[in-house]
Input
Amino acid sequence: MDKHLALLEAMVNVDSGSGYREGFQQLAAMIRPIAKELHCSFESRTAHDGSVHYVMSRGEGERILLIAHLDTVFPLGTAAKRPFTIIGDRAYGPGVSDCKSGVVTILAALDELNRDQWPDCRIECLFNTDEELSSPGSREIIAELAKGAKAVLVVEPAEGDNLTVARKGIGRFVLKVTGKAAHSGSNYGDGRNAVVELAHKITEIYRLSDLKTGVTFNPAVIKGGSRPNIVPDYAEVEIDLRLKTVAQERQALERLNEIVGRRWIPETESRLEGMITRPPMEVTPANLQLYQEFKTIGDDLGITLGYVESGGGSDANLAAACGVPVIDGLGPVGGGHHTEEEYLEIPSLYRRIKLLAEYLKRCGNGKIGV
Ligand SMILES: [Zn+2]
Output
């Protein structure tokens, strides 16, 4: 096993579910000596919500921001139960692909630059610890670092041999309906059925979805009522919204609010909570140009690249909102994310290290530029 895989093994075998601070500290303790070898500064940054993130950087000049997250979706004890394992060409374990292989890709690419020649630019790396929670704390650090960057490279897992040029925006909402309770036998007429009011609204909201434009509303988790012989006075639904453009965002929210304001059962009250948690990362000319630069490098290295638009969100959405060129999916190829079957395709780790290192080399030498 080479040193990159050994580092990945060590990282996967540390539990680092979102919120588990000791895990992040252990991972930071692994990265810190590597940062030193790379002549990089390595510092922790505390966000407004108290969450702690890590920034590693070196160099002067135009800034390139690399992002990979340290947190996983897996609870404490998972690493002991399902430690890092290699079977054939694949590696398994919690976070092996999402996103610890991304962290290793960054460190390995910088190792190559360090041995060869550090490019004439400033490379900043953010290892955040709350991505799987939609980055409630680190989003302010992402915005600060992304602003004015020449390019933001997000090293999330790749979908096949592709890079990600766009990601859907995500909204999360809870629609709460209150009615009036009554005995379903003796006072049925006095009741105001919150469940039925909510049911009307859910079907209307569902009908706003349009697979052609990519705007989808998913009313998903419902609660309401207590017993069949009581007219229910409360019901709620959690809704996931996905969309592709900022323009769609305005329209979708208008339509959603219009339905919330309509009333099917008199005297019921409806309230919508929630917001767009990740703005859409649109397919911009700048993102496509950045992709093209990677594609050219890939061709030179004998790595065939394509591009995809993803329905899922990541920190790339937050960086894109700063109006800078962003590419995501620069990590190795993996699958089964957020499940026990999560895997990494080991050969792709080395392809992605080469690709990232070569991009950074050329970038600093002024051979490419957005
Ligand atoms: Zn991830």
Remarks:
- The CA atoms of residues 301 and 355 lie 8 Å apart.
- The pocket of zinc ion is lined by residues 69, 98-99, 131, 156 (CB under 6 Å).
